[in-house]
Amino acid sequence: MRLSDRWSTERLVIRKAALEDSKELNCICASWEDKIHMEGDDFPKDYIEDCIVNGDLPPIENADISDYYMMTIQKVNGQIIGFFDLYHGYPDKDTIWISIFVIDKEVQGKAYGQEVIKAICDECKKAGWKSIGLGVYLKNWKGLRFWSNNGFNKIMGIYGDKEYSENTFSIISLRKEL
Question: Which of 35, 79, 143, 170 matches a 20 to 30 Å C-alpha distance to 105?
């Protein structure tokens, strides 16, 4: 159940990220201006480079870089406009997990995100995956609407702080059946 390192949509090329993409991907990270407010943290130093080299592996026994994909989203003209990652087999053997999905602020609102999610779902279904899971911070209203509108409507759990405040954070784990 492996995914291809590269696939295309009508307007986009989705491919495995390379270290040469780091500068542009870091700029896209910087475009997420309210990340600290929504998630409590900014991107760690060298986040992109670390994901490409070591992966952002889930907290499970025997997590392996060979099951991790850091993917770049680019327009067919070559302009990088976003990134996401995938992990095979988390939280169960039939699920692919998305732990990050970011579209550059400059191109949001043009349905690129929906196009990418459709492509991810199509590729995962072709490869034999049964579902896709992800976590969204509850303060990320825009993200919650986006994922819900794209069919991620099964709640797997809610994790984090029990009390709501400006300095507390919780995540809702969502799943889409393929």
Answer: 170
